[in-house]
Structure formats: structure tokens, C-alpha cells
Amino acid sequence: QVQLVESGGGSVQAGGSLRLSCAVSERIVSADDMGWYRQAPGKQRDLVATITTGGRTNYAESVKGRFTISRDNAKNTVYLQMNGLKPEDTAVYYCHARGLRINGLMIYGRDTWGQGTQVTVSS
After folding, report:
1. Which strand (E) or helix (H) includes residue 119?
2. CA-to-CA distance for 68 and 73, rounded, in angstroms?
């Protein structure tokens, strides 16, 4: 079963930086769209940023100018560089992928989620 393997969460003070990484567990599997969502305690899971295979990005208004999403298609890995972190960024961050393919053929078109990584920002 294909999984999304996340790393890079942790605890920082306000104004600090963290970098999240997420890789598709099977190197031969690519994903059309990849991205990050987050869920704070008692709240719904919200979009943070997404990126297509071609590099088109989309960001939540609350992170524009502070977070940068990127991907390495050769490694089937997506990154989230988070700068200027604020306490309100505290949440569990989930990697997301849609449109898994092997050699261009779709093998799974529905949503795939990582296990989540905790990001805690203290004031």
C-alpha cells in the first residue's frame, strides 16, 4: 500500500522556521497534486498549500508570504518551508496527495493522507 511519509515537525518560538517534507513511499509512484493541510485542536482540517506536477501553487491567505511549497518530482517529495511562524500556526500538519500513477497510468485517483506531524509555535 502506498503511503506518504512525513518528517520535519517540531516546536519553535514565534518568528522561527521549520521545514516539512513528505515523500511517496514507493519511488515508482508519482502524484498529480500534492500539498499540506493542518488541523488545530477542535477545528476542521484546512488547506495550507498545494502544488501540481507542473509547479502551480495555491496558498491559504493566512500563510501567503510566510510559507513556500515546493516539490521534487524526481524524488516524489513535497516540501513546506515555514518562516515567520506564529502561535496560530500550531496544528498537526498532514501531507496530501491525489492522482497516484505508475509510468503515467492512474493507479489510485482518490485522496491519500500522511500520518500527520505536529508543529507547535510558542509565543
Report:
1. strand 117-122
2. 16
